[in-house]
Design goal:
Layout: H1 5-11, E1 19-20, E2 26-27, E3 36-37, H2 39-47, H3 54-70, H4 76-82, H5 87-95
Antiparallel strand pairs: 1-2, 1-3
Helix pairs in contact: 1-2, 1-5, 2-3
Length: 98
Amino acid sequence: MQLKAYQLIEQGWCRHSFAYTWYGKSVEWSHQDAAAWCITGALLRVYVGELGCGGARAFKLVEAYLEKFHKHRGFLSDWNDQQSSSVPVVRLLKHLNL
């Protein structure tokens, strides 16, 4: 069973960086010590191998949902950084089964 982006965020969520280590150091989403991810970092971590197909679809689904139901147009990371907790991020990704 493939790991889902929401499962990564349930393990650890962050803002203002694609990922952080447990020690609070900002790292790339693919870093081996990453322990917390923003929505963009989690989607990249899970779907990077599928960016031509499934990954692009995942990003488009999230962007379309945010535009339709949250009136948000722009970077996913901006929406992520506006949240005060991981709850709305996880809820969104679970709803889209990502």
